[in-house]
Write a structure and sequence with these properties.
The complex is a heterodimer. Helix content of chain A is 40%, strand content 14%. Chain A has 15 helices and twelve strands. In chain A, strands 2-8-7-6-5-3-4 form a seven-stranded mixed beta sheet, with helices on both faces. A three-stranded antiparallel beta sheet of chain A has the order 9-10-12. Chain A has a two-stranded parallel sheet with strand order 1-11. Chain B is an all-alpha fold. Chain B has one domain. Chain B has two helices and no strands. The longest helix of chain B has 25 residues. The two termini of chain B are 19 Å apart. The chains are: A alpha/beta, B mainly alpha.
């Protein structure tokens, strides 16, 4: 048997990829029951999205209201949601205009769809912010088929002004997809205010989903026929997601995580406060700088840490000293070998644990 | 791995083994002699784990 993973049981986990996907007991119990292949398909009538037992149909309706999207479908992940939109909306060889802070899967989705990427640059060091107003100029310059904004990027944890980009796209008449992988499910994302045509979400990244991968694609009515187009031969299969997407325990995980997600987004203000407290404490260590928006507005943050790099140069464990030291103190989530800079997420930890984590970093800086 | 965590996962593993017995004997769960013996041993181990967990965490 594979070695057991006890990162959440025995450690404080700071890995930004994982903190928003940390599961609740309800999710784990449900996943365990639905662990077998095609487990949600007992009562399927031909499309995973319309299954009523377990109530995936009802879940999609509820999530549609929660996100402010006219229709929501399950996808295998956020990237698959982006691809489904790109291949349906853009003309062959067309262009996608995205922020330069985008996730690599945006590029990969565009490449698979045979599209060219164009970019909106960021503000450069140290904040690397995306200015929403830069989209207006770039739309005029490149005439994209689709505009994509990464709501919160995975490198700096910057929160972009999605409503402003939405307004620009409406004015210019360009379809707009919001990549909400690091936002929706953590914070309230109300698409009635943002007015994106599409919203792509990641269940395993920000909706406390385990048991595999799952994403969500919100589509507004204007584009429903185009993006949710059915196969000519298999009338209940959506082409863009190759018929059915998540059809196992991850769908049930989402069903069981959603009640907790609806509650937790109300605490987003507290999460931001905690993140800011932690960022400020880290900045009190000589040789630590925040890379990204300051004051910080998200739990994901990147630090430049020459202080730890200097220690690694003379420490017997070299670049691994920091990872090892943290591990001994019960803290995980940094990439082993990294000392020059690293990313952490404070999501869901609460002040008591964050105070402890900060003390561990402060101790490490004295090694 | 901490001792209490190991005990916890061992116990979850035992429950999975019991689940397998249910699957093998579905739909009526009438166990034969070997299965009864296995079930008894598993549940005894589970009880011991529960007692040990209680001792460690109380």
């Amino acid at each position: 048997m594979t070695e057991l993973r006890v990162v959440e049981e025995d450690f404080i986990n700071l890995n930004p990829l994982q903190t928003g996907g940390r599961t609740t007991p309800d999710v784990r119990k449900a996943v365990n029951s639905f662990i077998d292949g095609y487990s949600v398909c007992d009562w399927c009538l031909g499309d995973v999205n319309t299954i009523k037992n377990p109530d995936i149909q009802g879940l999609r309706d509820d999530i549609g209201k929660f996100l402010g999207a006219d229709e929501v479908i399950l996808t295998n992940g956020c990237r698959e949601a982006k691809y489904a939109v790109m291949q349906a909306v853009c003309k062959k060889g067309g262009k996608v205009l995205a922020d330069v802070n985008r996730h690599y899967s945006t590029d990969v989705a565009a490449e698979l769809a045979g599209l060219k990427m164009e970019f909106v640059q960021n503000s450069g060091s140290p904040e690397f912010k995306i200015r929403a107003e830069d989209y207006a100029k770039r739309i005029d310059e490149v005439s994209p088929d689709l505009v994509l904004l990464t709501h919160v990027d995975g490198n700096y944890g910057n929160v972009a002004d999605a409503a402003k980009v939405g307004a620009i796209c409406r004015k210019k008449g360009v379809p707009f997809i919001l990549n909400a992988a690091y936002s929706a499910g953590r914070m309230l994302v109300d698409n009635k205010k943002i007015r994106a045509d599409f919203i792509a979400c990641s269940g395993h990244k920000s909706w406390a989903v385990g048991g595999g991968n799952i994403g969500l694609l919100g589509v507004n009515n204007d584009f429903k026929d185009k993006v949710l187009k059915r196969s000519s031969e298999y009338k209940n299969k959506i082409l863009g997601i190759l018929g059915c997407s998540a059809r196992g325990s991850s769908a049930v995980a989402l069903l069981n995580s959603f009640p907790s997600v609806k509650k937790r987004v109300k605490d987003w203000g507290k999460e931001v406060k905690n993140a800011q407290w932690f960022a400020n404490k880290m900045l009190s260590i000589n040789g630590v700088e925040l890379i990204g928006e300051n004051p910080h507005q998200h739990d994901l943050m990147q630090f430049s840490t020459p202080v730890f790099y200097e220690i690694s140069q003379k420490h017997k464990k070299k670049g691994y000293f920091l990872y090892k030291f943290l591990e001994e103190k019960g803290v995980r989530g940094l990439k082993a070998g990294r000392t020059k800079n690293f990313k952490v997420s404070t999501y869901g930890l609460g002040m008591e644990k964050l105070k402890y984590v900060f003390e561990v970093f402060r101790e490490a800086a004295k090694l | 791995m901490r001792k209490e965590t190991k005990l916890l996962f061992d116990s979850l593993g035992i429950l999975e083994d019991v689940r397998e017995l249910l699957r093998q004997s579905a739909p009526f769960h009438k166990f034969d002699k070997v299965q009864k013996k296995e079930l008894s041993a598993k549940l005894d181990k589970l009880k011991n784990n529960a007692d040990e967990l209680k001792r460690l965490l109380s």
